[in-house]
Design brief:
The structure holds 2 protein chains of 2 kinds. Helix content of chain A is 33%, strand content 19%. Chain A is of the alpha+beta class. Chain A has a domain of 110 residues: Alpha-Beta Plaits (2-Layer Sandwich). Chain B starts with a helix and ends in a 15-residue tail after the last helix. In chain B, the strands form 4 sheets. Chain B has an 8-stranded antiparallel sheet. Chain B is built from 11 helices and 17 strands. Chain B folds into 3 domains: 193 residues, Uridine Diphospho-n-acetylenolpyruvylglucosamine Reductase, domain 3; 74 residues, Alpha-Beta Plaits; 62 residues, 2-Layer Sandwich (Alpha-Beta Plaits). Chains A and B meet through strand 9, helix 7, helix 8, helix 10 and helix 16 of A and strand 7, helix 6, strand 9, helix 8 and helix 11 of B.
Chain lengths: 552, 379
């Protein structure tokens, strides 16, 4: 077992100084420092890394955010911004000598503009809450990360969150128009515009996915899309992974851009079927789900062609969803993949690499070989449309040495993703989790550019220091360690416990769904084991908010 | 090809050591765009060729000097397109159109007309997108990765060839529209999309208020609209997608159907600014604003695109008046083509943003040699 990050003892004098500075303009209840008050903030969704922050600040207004940043900047106190705390890479891990700036009170949808199809929202607003609010207007917000029921839009901007519809509808960066950002110096800048573009450099792109390193988002203007009129899904079963991989390419070659395109291998479908009876065949090598949305005419055309291609590609069976409940049932299985993995194994570790789709067969073969090498099982779920692979390594944290093997397995998968021309993270972010692998993906000159970009926004390096971009020194040390270790290229130092991401310090409750998110509870799996339990209202297309995409 | 890159790198290092500005140029088709052009020409045309193209991955990678026509031809062969419909501005303007005015202020020799061919590098550096932008996205939305040389001549690679990638800051998108001020683009990977199976262009008679209302109404419904343009009482709308979807939407929208050849020409003339509206020497302003903004009360003819979000204006009105109007409408105004650019080409930045811009410029190009003044006079 690798040791979790070392807890840093709090400098009490410093703490007193910061608390009293913040309490000059914040109420007492908004500045926390007592151990029992700050403890809930010690980690985000990556629970293996824990660090109690020196102070937690809970501002309610943009002005307060700016003042907090000004005070911290003046005192050289580092600041970590936090939304809902659902991030999977430790991006919101606090600092023992820093202020944890919670945006949890920024829960307001400021304005919903039907005419221009935009919504101005505060950063703490939940991803799904935007679609819920837009639904009566016939609109929705497209990016739908797995944690959309709990994750906040501010966090989505920080991570450039994706979801299942990325191939057709894009990531966060494609679906936002404007940000209000507080700089570390405590000034507000507006980035982007109510228009489709803005003068100067594309800072909107730069801010999106910057993991809280460049500024603190205080308001987001998102684009809303008209809800598709209709959706249908084809489920195709294959007795051979390579054939399934080719079917993916063949569907794309027909000129269809599926709204969702997912693959599960046999380990995944077996886990899922045992957990929720979605109707997947468990005697096949892979199951593909391919969805079309749009006008009824368009969907009918697409579905017919998708089915043809699947059959030509050697599918042993294809089924088209006959009605809305059946469509949702097909998806329910895919959505249950993570909790299902949790049900068949005490623990699982979710990876997040992206690969060129054409290399899928090869990658899966090599992952199978790794299963033997590490003596661990791995279930694979794959966003086939955009190449984002989520291998779920199954292990038992109580078994001595199991996590170390899991970690090495995961590292080798990431290495493989890089080798075939992919990336170490498709949508979960680098955070603290993959910081060493950044040394493998980027040259020192490229990392130097990242540091220079950070410097342009934050010259003292006070915003979320130590995340996302490794220092050159760290890479040198990592390289040396790698050489000395002489085996795995990647060695990270953290431990993932359970890996069901925990939301701590979140104060909201989600109603109308069986995912309960309150205080600290697991949202990686439903609170009761029945599935499907998501926010669907089957049969009523108009109320479909894309919640069918709770999974990755 | 590495020798070409090394040569460019050497030229940059050399220029940096002497603090001599470089003018990065491919086909020179967009010399008219942006601020002052000066310095020694750094020719990107030798960086030519498609590096990889995988139709089933929906990704193409090509070197910066590759002509857009070459890329578009390769895509067309596989039934795919650049979804953002980039303008080329290749062909010399029509006889009645103005001579590209900015060339009057070039301190470098213009590219001979026969060699003028828009390149991928210029397309990405200017970040200009065509009629489909409001519906499919802009250049920046399709850039997946880029190789660049920074102002120190270092070769850097950001992003990649995959659609989801959150490792590191999104520097490849940052190069889009940066007008070469942050680095010399060497190679770009783009997401591409299938060409629509069917298209139809409809024309409706409408007043300007009504046209803007209609454009926004269509935008809020699940209709396969891919372009809109309004000029002088005539509203054109293009539908693209599955034949059945196009037919169904055409029925809902109504109006007169334009024949296909005429329609293709019409949208290409809009994109390439060959339509009559663009002829003449009067300054051409580009106002990018909130799409629901009613017709702007500014002197001079206007052409509306992008569902109301883009307003082209021919006007000699005071730059300040035009920029204020754009800002009030939630956007900004660019002096797109003009003989006299003393008013500044791009909308002034707020002090906070200007500071970040200057620091980014300093980070990427500490000697300040890459296209200085092309975007803003002070960097």
């Amino acid at each position: 077992m690798t040791a979790p990050a070392e807890q840093i003892a709090v400098d009490l004098e410093r703490q007193r100084e910061v608390v009293s500075a913040l309490r000059t303009f914040l109420p007492e209840s908004a500045v926390l420092f007592a151990q029992e008050d700050v403890k809930p903030y010690e980690c985000d969704g990556l629970t293996a890394y824990r660090q109690v922050p020196m102070v937690v600040a809970l501002p309610e207004t943009e002005e307060q955010v700016c003042r907090i940043l000004k005070e911290c900047h003046a005192r050289k106190v580092p600041v970590v911004a936090r939304g809902a705390g659902t991030g999977l890479s430790g991006g919101a891990l606090p600092l023992g000598n820093g202020v944890l700036l919670s945006l949890a009170k920024f829960m307001r949808i400021v304005q919903m503009d039907v005419r221009s199809r935009t919504a101005r929202v505060q950063p703490g607003v939940r991803n799904l809450a935007i679609s819920d609010a837009a639904s009566p207007l016939g609109l929705y917000y497209a990016p739908d990360p797995s944690s959309q029921i709990a994750c906040s839009i501010g966090g989505n901007v920080a991570e450039n969150s994706g979801g299942i519809h990325c191939l057709k509808y894009g990531l966060t960066v494609h679906n936002i128009l404007k940000l209000r950002v507080a700089t570390i110096e405590g000034d507000i800048v507006e980035i982007g515009a109510d228009a489709l573009d803005a003068p100067g450099y594309d800072l909107l792109a730069l801010m999106t996915g910057s993991e809280g390193m460049l500024g603190v988002v205080t308001e987001v203007t998102v684009r809303l899309l008209p809800k598709p009129e209709y959706a249908q899904v084809v489920m195709a079963s294959f007795d051979d992974l390579a054939k399934a991989g080719e079917a993916v390419a063949s569907v794309i070659a027909t000129g269809i851009v599926p709204a969702g395109f997912e693959m599960m291998d046999q380990a995944a479908t077996r886990a899922v079927e045992g957990f929720v009876q979605a109707g997947y065949r468990t005697d096949v090598a892979a199951v593909l789900l391919c969805e079309s949305d749009g006008t009824r005419e368009e969907v009918a055309d697409d579905i017919r062609r998708i089915q043809e291609v699947m059959e030509k590609s050697g599918a042993v069976q294809t089924q088209v969803s006959r009605d809305e409940p059946e469509r949702l049932r097909f998806w329910a299985g895919r959505k249950a993949a993570f909790p299902a993995a949790g049900a068949i194994s005490p623990d699982y570790y979710c990876m997040d690499g992206t690969i060129p789709k054409k290399r899928l067969g090869e990658v899966l073969r090599r992952i199978t070989a790794m299963e033997e090498k590490y003596g661990l099982r791995c279930a694979n779920v794959f966003h086939a449309g955009d190449g984002n692979l989520h291998p779920l390594i199954l292990y038992d944290a109580n078994e001595p040495g199991a996590f170390a093997r899991t970690e090495a397995f995961g590292a080798e998968i990431l290495e493989l993703c890089l080798e075939v021309g992919g990336t170490i993270t498709g949508e979960h972010g680098v955070g603290v989790e993959k910081i060493n692998q950044m040394c493998a993906q980027f040259s020192s000159a490229e990392l130097a550019v990242f540091h220079a970009v950070k410097w342009a926004f934050d010259q003292e390096g006070l915003l979320n220091p130590g995340k996302a971009v490794p220092t050159l020194r760290r890479c040198v040390e990592y390289g040396r360690m790698h050489v000395h270790a002489g085996q795995e290229k990647f060695r990270s130092r953290f431990k993932v416990q359970g890996s069901r991401f925990k939301v701590q310090g979140s104060r909201f409750k989600v109603q109308g769904s069986r995912f309960k998110v309150q205080g600290s509870s697991n949202i990686g799996r439903p609170m009761n084991t029945k599935f499907p339990t998501l926010n669907f209202e089957p049969g009523t297309l108009n109320t479909e908010h894309r919640t069918r995409n709770i999974e990755h | 090809m590495q020798d070409v890159v090394e040569n460019l790198s050497r030229l940059i290092r050399d220029a940096a050591s002497r603090r001599r500005p470089l003018c990065i140029r491919g086909g020179g088709t967009k010399d008219f765009y942006g601020g002052e052009i000066r310095g020694d020409v750094l020719d990107t045309k030798p960086l030519r060729g498609i590096v990889s193209y995988e139709p089933t991955e929906l990704v193409i990678s090509a070197r910066a000097g590759t002509p857009l026509v070459e890329i578009e031809a390769a895509l067309q062969e596989k039934g795919q397109v650049l979804p953002f419909e980039p303008p080329h501005f290749d062909r010399p303007p029509q006889p009645e159109a103005p001579q590209p005015p900015a060339e009057g202020q070039l301190s470098i020799a213009p590219v001979p007309t026969e060699e003028k061919l828009a390149t991928l590098g210029g397309c990405v550096a200017t970040g200009l997108s065509g009629p489909r932008r409001a519906y499919a996205g802009a250049v920046r939305d399709f850039v997946l990765g880029a190789r660049i040389l920074d102002g120190k001549g270092a070769e850097l690679h950001f992003g990649g060839q995959v659609m989801k990638n959150v490792a590191g800051y999104d520097v490849s998108r940052l190069t889009v529209g940066a007008l070469g001020t942050l680095g010399v683009i060497l190679e770009v990977s783009l997401k591409v999309l299938p060409a629509p199976a069917a298209e139809a262009t409809l024309r409706l008679a409408a007043g300007p208020d009504e046209a803007i209302t209609l454009m926004n109404d269509w935008g809020s419904k699940p209709l396969p609209v891919t372009a809109t343009a309004y000029r002088a009482g005539s509203l054109s709308v293009r539908l693209s997608g599955a034949p059945s979807a196009v037919a169904a939407a055409a029925k809902k929208i109504g109006g007169e159907t334009m024949d296909a050849t005429h329609a293709a020409q019409f949208w290409s003339d809009i994109r390439e600014q060959r339509a009559a509206f663009y002829a003449g020497n009067q300054a051409l302003w580009r106002l990018s604003i909130k799409p629901t903004t009613p017709p702007l009360d500014l002197a001079g003819p206007q052409l509306i695109e992008w569902g109301g979000a883009l307003r082209w204006l021919r006007s000699d009105a005071d730059a300040k008046v035009i920029r204020e109007a754009a800002a009030r409408a939630g956007g900004h105004a660019t002096l797109f083509r003009a003989v006299d650019k003393t008013a500044g080409v791009f909308h002034p930045l707020s002090p906070g943003l200007a500071k970040i811009h200057r620091r980014l410029k300093e980070a990427f190009d500490p000697a300040g040699i890459l296209n200085p003044g092309r975007m803003y006079p002070d960097f």
